[in-house]
Design a protein that fits this description.
The protein has two domains: 81 residues, 3-Layer(aba) Sandwich (Glutaredoxin), CATH 3.40.30.10; 163 residues, Glutathione S-transferase Yfyf (Class Pi), Chain A, domain 2 (Up-down Bundle), CATH 1.20.1050.10. By secondary structure, it is α+β, with helices and mostly antiparallel strands. It is built from ten helices and four strands; from the N terminus they run E-H-E-E-E-H-H-H-H-H-H-H-H-H. A hairpin with a 2-residue loop joins strand 3 and strand 4.
């Protein structure tokens, strides 16, 4: 069996998701869309070249950031993940991606990292590998850094209700754009679907209780979209996004 030339440096399963990072999910789905074989290695952001995951090693070449990874695989392997889209649709895809990654993502992160209950059950566990006597200090430092990052971004300067309102507006936009189509750009999956799936699934996981999750649950077309892509790209993952009461 030939060893793949590509190694994807990822996070690991957690929070009810096949990966804790939506950016890793985006990249992994795009690699699968491209039909490329790859190996996986788990890492953490401090170990990554730019301090973030995913990054990729391809025949000795290091490629960082999910957007640049996509550019690399399309150029090197002659793949067009937006095949069939015209210039306007490609521009629209880029616009949607930026809304998802530079806006909705940060609203999701705020509810994961700053809401005490969600932080305690989720991101706080990233410190579990440290000596026990150091864990609480590490957790405080992690949360403080994330709070500073979110305030620097701008979204962290708002109240919880305001952040929820901003996030729900982006969720509404995605639901409207999707409508009753199978994919965001129509009948055929394109690169932006990998991004949308990753972000929406990361919000829809029942692991975290947030108003953003409530908003996605309340839009059946988004729930069906996430479920379909989870079955398609992570069939081995046990995915149960809705409880009995929600599904009724």
């Amino acid at each position: 069996m030939t060893t793949p030339s590509i190694t994807l440096y990822a996070t690991r399963p957690g929070f009810g998701m096949p990966e804790t990072s939506p950016f890793v999910i985006k990249t992994e789905v795009q690699l699968k869309m491209a039909g490329l074989a790859y190996a996986r290695e788990s890492t953490t952001p401090p170990q990554a070249p730019k301090g973030k995951v995913p990054y990729m090693l391809d025949a000795g070449e290091v490629v960082c950031d999910s957007t640049f990874i996509r550019t690399h695989i399309e150029r090197k392997y002659g793949v067009d993940l937006d095949e069939g889209l015209d210039a306007r649709q490609r521009a629209e895809s880029w616009t949607i991606e930026r809304m998802l990654e530079d806006h909705l993502y940060f609203a999701m992160v705020w509810f994961r990292w700053i809401v005490p209950e969600n932080f305690a059950k989720g991101p706080a566990n990233f410190a579990n590998g440290a000596p026990e006597e150091q864990r609480e200090q590490l957790r405080r430092e992690m949360q403080t850094r994330r709070d500073a990052d979110l305030r620097s971004h701008g979204i962290g300067r708002h109240s919880a209700a305001e952040i929820a309102a901003l996030g729900v507006r982006s969720i509404d936009a995605v639901a409207t754009l999707l409508g009753d189509r199978p994919y965001l750009m129509g009948e055929r999956m394109s690169a932006v679907d990998a991004t949308a799936f990753a972000m929406l699934a990361s919000i829809l996981t029942p692991f975290f209780d947030t108003p953003l999750r409530d908003a996605v649950v309340g839009r059946p077309n988004l729930v069906a979209y996430v479920n379909k892509l989870m079955r398609q790209y992570y069939p081995e993952h046990a995915w149960a996004p809705l409880g009995q009461a929600e599904a009724a």
